[in-house]
Specification:
- The protein is of the alpha+beta class and about 110 residues long.
- A hairpin with a 6-residue loop joins strand 1 and strand 2.
- The chain is globular.
């Protein structure tokens, strides 16, 4: 019984930091994207994304995919902002409700 308790204590003690590390790893590019977007730094926005990115947004053309999708999306967003006299776009990252990690991929929602 004492071996089981010790094993559980070790598993909990070791498992906590692993989960926190995975969460940090998954959320790092998301935070990088948001911070860069809020600064208007397209190079850092692009650096936060994989080259083969798929973006869905609520303005036309509504989806951007493939190589260079991030810069195309940012360009279209900027053009829409100018067209409708919008400025100071800002993103606030809300609290994540779920985090799914599978291999090298992660998804937060």
């Amino acid at each position: 019984m004492s071996k089981l308790v010790i094993a559980l204590v070790i598993a909990v003690a070791v498992g906590g930091p692993v989960v926190a590390s995975q969460e940090t790893d998954v959320m790092a590019p998301v935070r990088q994207f948001v911070d860069a977007f809020n600064k208007g730094d397209i190079k850092m926005v692009q650096a936060a994304c994989a080259d083969e990115t798929f973006i869905i947004d609520d303005f036309p053309p509504h989806e951007w995919r493939g190589s260079g999708a991030t810069s195309k999306w940012f360009h279209d967003l900027t053009a829409m902002g100018k067209k409708y006299d919008m400025s100071d776009a800002f993103v606030t990252l809300g609290k994540q409700r779920r985090l799914h990690i599978s291999g090298v991929c992660g998804r937060a929602s």
